[in-house]
Write a structure and sequence with these properties.
The longest helix is centred in the C-terminal third of the chain and has 24 residues, at 438-461. Strands 4-10-9-8-7-5-6 form a seven-stranded mixed sheet, with helices on both faces. It has a four-stranded mixed sheet with strand order 1-2-3-13. The chain has helices at 7-18, 57-60, 69-82, 94-106, 120-138, 158-163, 191-194, 200-217, 245-253, 278-282, 309-315, 334-349, 352-367, 406-416, 438-461, and strands at 36-40, 43-46, 51-54, 113-117, 145-149, 183-186, 224-229, 259-263, 288-291, 303-307, 376-382, 385-390, 419-420, 422-424, 427-430. It contains 15 helices and 15 strands. The protein folds into two domains: 34-64 and 351-461, Aspartate Aminotransferase, domain 1, CATH 3.90.1150.10; 69-349, Type I PLP-dependent aspartate aminotransferase-like (Major domain) (Aspartate Aminotransferase, domain 2, 3-Layer(aba) Sandwich). A hairpin with a 4-residue loop joins strand 2 (43-46) and strand 3 (51-54). It is α/β, with parallel strands linked by helices and 465 residues long.
Length: 465
């Protein structure tokens, strides 16, 4: 009988043989993945027992921290009470109904209606259908075009990947919807990368003017169905909107019956010290608001498409024989809804939004110290979402070659030092759990500094930089 492999080796080999992971890079398959076995609070442990601070909060999502017994108890109780109820047509269930009411209370303005899904991608996919349905019901036959932005990320379904605008997500081996299918992309709002010497106000003017020009190019506002944007771009590099250009777009959309569709999968549920940031931070009242990730703090997959009275009043008007021919087996899942309700209860009871408002500025104060490093071109973000951008030349902003994957080189060093950050080509992105302390923040920043310094030294010693 063969000796059993050590757990780490066993899991790595099993993963290589059978597991197609999201965004799997096949050229690095032989290196193997980092096998995580346990998580608690802001920490995770690999199968060798090594402890890490998870500075990406799972994937922007472990907002209240991991391993909470109170969450496990609520989930277990719902499983025993009713683990599933058919959500289609003429049936509902208790936790999902209570959750939709709670979300309507938390969402800004007249966002009083909720379609529950399985995650952010499916919530945005549902919103795409809702936009079509609304305009068709209203008789807006020409309103077909949807405007999104370069560097945006809105999910991984066929539709939502097409709505997204990240270059790294557009691979030659897959197909995407584009202008022929009424999906269009404006320029990235990344002021650091594309401001080109303009003031921030002038850059915002240029972006707004581009929006108007695109509408004119497509035949005027009577042809535009919706404008889609993250209030703060997440996976696109933690990009805050310059000036008030998003507010100006929202103000243009309302009188022209263009639906303003706000993707708050990342920014919602406390990441920036608010339940939602569209109205609270940017004075924007969306027609559609998307939530996921922090909605359940990743204890159970869940997404929500929250939409306005004015949409509801049109689509629900009686006497037309209409029905919303869209949904998922696991829409309005009882256990997911129960998890979200408990998650919200914990956030309210522990005043987690207030905590984020307190530690968020400290996080960015400490991160700002990294600007002194030769390889750091920009540090940006707000509250508990942040990005460090690496450059080859700080004066010109020239980046390292993409194939070098400088962000991964730094994150590899961080791994060795017990810190997990998210590499995205020339970026390291961070979104720690909302319960992180100033001591956790000190560890994150001090360790990342060390990882950057070690990477810099290696590149210099190898004559690469």
């Amino acid at each position: 009988m063969k000796n059993a492999l050590p757990l780490t080796e066993e899991i790595i080999e099993m993963d290589k043989a059978h597991h197609l992971r999201p965004y799997q890079n096949f050229d690095t398959l032989e290196e193997g993945a980092l096998p995580i076995e346990r998580a608690e609070g802001v920490y995770v442990w690999d199968t060798d027992g090594k402890k890490y601070v998870d500075a990406i909060g799972g994937m922007w999502c472990t907002n209240i921290g991991t391993g909470r017994k109170e969450m496990a108890d609520a989930i277990a109780q719902q499983v025993l009470t009713c683990n599933f109820a058919n959500p289609f047509t003429d049936m509902t269930n208790v936790p999902a109904t209570r959750l939709t009411k709670k979300l309507a209370e938390l969402a800004p303005g007249d966002l009083n209606h909720v379609h529950l899904t399985c995650g952010g991608s499916t919530a945005n996919d549902s919103a795409f259908r809702l936009v079509q349905f609304y305009h068709a019901c209203k008789g807006n036959e020409r309103k077909k075009h949807i405007i999104s932005r370069t560097d945006a990320y809105h999910g991984s379904t066929y539709v939502t990947m097409s709505l997204g605008g990240k270059k790294g997500d557009r691979i030659d081996e897959m197909n995407y919807m584009g202008p022929e299918e009424n999906i269009h992309h404006l320029s990235s709002p990344n002021y650091y990368r594309y401001g080109n010497g303009l003031s921030e106000a002038d850059f915002a003017d240029r972006l707004f003017d581009e929006f108007i020009q695109k509408i004119d190019e497509l035949g005027g506002p009577d042809t535009i169905a919706a404008f889609l944007a993250e209030p703060i771009m997440g996976a696109g590099g933690v990009v805050l909107p310059p000036g008030n250009y998003l507010k100006r777009i929202a103000d243009y959309c309302r009188p022209n019956d263009i639906l303003y569709w706000s993707d708050e999968v990342v920014t919602g549920f406390g990441r920036c010290g608010e339940w939602f940031v569209s109205e609270a931070l940017f004075d924007i009242q969306p027609d559609i608001l998307i939530s996921a990730k922090g909605l359940s703090s990743a204890y159970i997959p869940l997404g929500a498409c929250i939409f306005s009275d004015r949409i509801w009043d049109v689509i629900s008007e009686p006497g037309h024989g209409r029905f919303f021919a869209h949904g998922y087996t696991y829409s309005s899942h009882t256990v997911a809804a129960a998890a979200a309700l408990k998650n919200i209860e914990i956030m309210e009871r522990e005043e987690i939004l207030d905590h984020v408002r307190k530690v968020g500025p400290y996080f960015h104060e400490r991160l700002g110290e990294l600007r002194a490093l030769d390889m750091v071109g920009d540090v940006r973000g707000t509250h508990l979402m942040a990005c460090v951008e690496f450059v080859k030349d700080k004066t010109t902003g020239e980046t390292f070659p993409g194939e070098m994957d400088i962000g991964k080189l730094v994150s590899n060093e961080a791994d060795r030092l017990g810190l997990i950050v998210r590499p995205i080509v020339n970026l390291n992105v961070m979104s720690p759990s909302l319960i992180c302390t100033e001591q956790d923040i000190d560890f994150i920043v001090d360790t990342l500094r060390r990882a950057i310094e070690v990477t810099s030294d290696k590149l210099r010693s190898q004559g690469i930089w």
